[in-house]
């Protein structure tokens, strides 16, 4: 479960950073009429978000067996700026408690 947690944590940070870059790109696109940044960062974020979904489902559904509600919240976190950073902390604490309880 620890390796699944580490992979999830890396993906949560990567997706969170890419989402912030995409938000900057949206400001540039609509504020300064230049869509180049969104055209480049958008597909990259989309691909990385799919990898994030796989990491979260692997950790939450298969390894840690979270409730569907919590899993959905974690899955949506990659689409709301800063939420992936906040939930990464919550997920890490929750999984580490689970690991400690089973040890």
From TrEMBL:
GO terms for cellular component: plasma membrane. It is a multi-pass membrane protein. It is found in: Cell membrane. The chain crosses the membrane at residues 6-28, 40-62, 68-87. Keywords: Cell membrane, Membrane, Transmembrane, Transmembrane helix. Residues 5-92 form the DUF3817 domain. It holds the Pfam family DUF3817. This is DUF3817 domain-containing protein. It comes from Microbispora triticiradicis. The lineage of its organism: Bacteria, Bacillati, Actinomycetota, Actinomycetes, Streptosporangiales.
